[in-house]
Every structure is written in structure tokens, then in C-alpha cells.
Amino acid sequence: xxxxxxxxxxxxxxxxxxxxxxxxxxxxxxxxxxxxxxxxxxxxxxxxxxxxxxxxxxxxxxxxxxxxxxxxxxxxxxxxxxxxxxxxxxxxxxxxxxxxxxxxxxxxxxxxxxxxxxxxxxxxxxxxxxxxxxxxxxxxxxxxxxxxxxxxxxxxxxxxxxxxxxxxxxxxxxxxxxxxxxxxxxxxxxxxxxxxxxxxxxxxxxxxxxxxxxxxxxxxxxxxxxxxxxxxxxxxxxxxxxxxxxxxxxxxxxxxxxxxxxxxxxxxxxxxxxxxxxxxxxxxxxxx
Length: 288
Fold this sequence. Notes:
Layout: E1 2-10, E2 20-28, H1 29-47, H2 60-63, H3 66-72, H4 80-93, H5 99-122, E3 126-137, H6 146-161, E4 167-173, H7 177-193, H8 195-200, E5 209-211, H9 217-231, H10 247-254, E6 259-264, E7 267-273, E8 275-280, H11 284-287
Parallel strand pairs: 1-4, 3-8, 4-5
Antiparallel strand pairs: 1-2, 2-3, 6-7
Helix pairs in contact: 1-5, 3-5, 4-5, 5-10
């Protein structure tokens, strides 16, 4: 048995996003194709056609931006069949689309994202996130960053809990080629040269796959999760304002977190969640 961990990020441009998020979505190998076909069926049912055809991409920054919510609420909600027909006409007509078509397409985008999360829950997907505070101290070294280390740690614990014979495969959205080489090198050193990395290599295949996000459904899901976490999920010391219109989606994402029990400091039932907030990205040796 194997689990794919599809990974994407949000807020790495350090512009408007309140948090930098590295998110992963774990899908069991036997469920992956059924999940993909369910999402494609939902896309056709909601948009009346494949939204992701041609040059369009199902990116959270397009589906969930504030303008989408503004357009979606400029008219009352359409019945599903009427919304689908109007959304299809909007996608086909582009600039010639009228107010009803634009409203229906915006409503369809929001309905689709909620359906994505509902389908993921139905297929027992688990979500992981390393959430970096905007004021987090940055490392000076070129070692694997702590947000990646923590993401792999939580994924490793999850794999341990699935029983013997379980392995994990990491799939990243393709970066610029030189950045991909850097990340592969950092992961190679982490899994080969550190004690914890060597231990986790027993369950996580250390060499990741890189794919095009517009062609890979799992990475598109991770993109949505990362965006919702950055803009909508709040807990503990996460005090940056959230977008209130994302709260239903944030609740759906939080319900797919994974809770881990491990012995820590003589506490046999210490709880570790698959989401972690990071305020300092430096490794221990840089803090001395």
C-alpha cells in the first residue's frame, strides 16, 4: 500500500498572503484514479464543460479571489441546472458574457471548490500544512527548510499509523529547473545525512516527482488547500485577519487534518496535528 503526497504552496511571493503555506494532500494509491474521475465529473456537472480545457487552470487564486465572491453575490443564487448552462455560456463566450453569465460562473467556481473538498473527504484524503508566520526568522544555511522537514515528519507519522508495508511518494508542482535541482539536493542530503531523515526514508521515498500542476489533479487540490489555509484557517497563535467568506471552506479543510498520538517527554498520548505553525525557520545549529 502506498500514499501519494501531492504538495503545493501559497504565499511564497511574500506579497498579500497573510501566511506562507506548504500544503500536502495524502491520497491512497487505490483511491487516486477514482478521486480524479469524481473530480472531473464534478467539473462537468458544475461548469457544463471542462473548465480546465485549453489555457484555463483550476487555481485557487482565480477560483477564490475576492472578486469571485463579489460577482457570485451580485445576483441571487441560480438553480443548479440554470447555473450550469449560464456558466458554460460564460466560458464559451468570454468577453461577450453578460451579468447573469458572469454571476453564474462565479457561483459555479465556489460550488466547485466546496465539492472538491467534499469529494476529498469522501475518499479519506488527509491534509498536511506547514504554516510560516510572516515574521518568521529565515535560515542562513542551504539545508532543507524547516517547513519541508515538518511536512515530511507529519506525513511519516501518518504512514507509520497505516501499518507495515506502507510507503509514501512525494509529488511536487514543478518549479523552475534550477530550483527543482536545489530542492532535490536538499532532500537527498536530509534523507541520507540526518538521523531523522534516514529514519523517515524507511517509509517516504526520498526522491520526489515533479509534475505540471495544470495537468495533475492532486497538485490542484494541494493548491486549493494551501490557499484556504493561508487566507481562511486560523487557530492557536495565527492572529492575521482571515477572509470571513472562506470560513466554510476552512472548516472543510480542518476536518481533513490528521491527529497523531506519540510519546513525548514521558507523555504517551501527546497530540501532534498535521498542521503546524512555524515562527522560526532556522535549524537548531543556527540558533546557538
